[in-house]
Amino acid sequence: MKTTVFLVRHGRTKANEEERFAGRTDEPLLEIGKEQARQAALHLAGHNISAIYASPLVRTVETAQIMAKILDAPVKIEEGLNEIRIPKWDGRLKADLIQDHETRYAIWKKDPSSFSMPGAETLQELQFRAVSALKKIFSKHKGEKVVAVTHLAVSRCLLLHCKGQPLSKYRSICVANATPIALTQNSDHNCVVVGSLKELHAEQKKVNA
Description:
Elements: E1 3-9, H1 14-18, E2 20-21, H2 31-44, E3 49-54, H3 58-71, E4 75-77, E5 92-93, H4 94-99, H5 105-110, H6 123-140, E6 145-150, H7 152-163, E7 181-185, E8 191-193, H8 197-207
Parallel strand pairs: 1-6, 3-4, 3-6
Antiparallel strand pairs: 1-7, 2-5, 7-8
């Protein structure tokens, strides 16, 4: 019995364009982000989507709601899909963060898997709770197809987990806004990414063109 979760990063936001770390700020989608969400839903039309799970932040919920109207599926909030928690970075320009040594952003840029900071989540902690959320979704929807709308960091951590690769490969993973990436689970409970990441990135460019 095959179960499929379509992993979708939220649509484009102002922070994406400004190179700003959105973090857990409640930032809405741009008009292009809304259109990306519509295109993502149209890409999945005909797949009989049972449910759409979303991180609780505005940009992910908005993406999920736009998709839900087209796919006629209920939206469910899943905290485990929330953005990485680094409060001191929220809303700040990345160019400013790199100049502020107290933020440890330079370590994040060089080797995200070794980043740690008081009051902040590590990639290891993020991956653990994101994988737990994914397993829960797979368990609830055996034999079905669902969508999980989340963030770049979460998407990268989940893709590395499903491909059996270490977090040191974090920056090798490309995930475009609002483009479905299929994760499947068979009866052996192993999660598999459908297609190579290079092929998936090419497909992302088509959907977001």
